[in-house]
């Protein structure tokens, strides 16, 4: 099942996602939310323990 969003509360991870051209769609209550596209691939710069995948977007 494809998860449409990537969420993190870690500021460093959020900055890394931005630098990898992931589009930020929300920031609220200390949670950064990015679009998860099939075209984008993670590098080893992302600590996968600091991200969550979700289909829920609460704005």
Task: Furnish the topology, listing elements before pairings.
Blueprint lengths: L4 E4 L2 H9 L4 E5 L2 E5 L16 E3 L5
Antiparallel strand pairs: 1-3, 1-4, 2-3
Describe this structure in words.
The chain is built from one helix and four strands; from the N terminus they run E-H-E-E-E. It starts with a strand and ends in a 5-residue tail after the last strand. A four-stranded antiparallel beta sheet has the order 2-3-1-4, with helices on one face. The radius of gyration is 10 Å and the shape is globular. A hairpin with a 2-residue loop joins strand 2 and strand 3. 15% of the residues lie in helices and 29% in strands. 15% of the residues are buried. With 59 residues, the chain is of the alpha+beta class.
Relevant terms:
59 residues; alpha+beta; four-stranded antiparallel beta sheet; 4 strands; 15% helix
Structural class: alpha+beta
Dominant shape: globular
Q: What strand order characterises the main sheet? A: 2-3-1-4
Distance between the termini: 23 Å
For the report, how would you describe the main beta sheet? Answer: 4 strands, antiparallel
> Cα-atom Rg, whole angstroms?
10 Å
The poorly predicted ranges are: none
Number of E-state strands: 4
Helix-strand pattern: EHEEE
Tally of helical runs = 1
Helicity, in percent? 10-25%
Please state the average pLDDT score.
85
Strand content: 25-35%
Task: Explain briefly what this protein structure is.
This protein has 59 residues and is an alpha+beta fold.
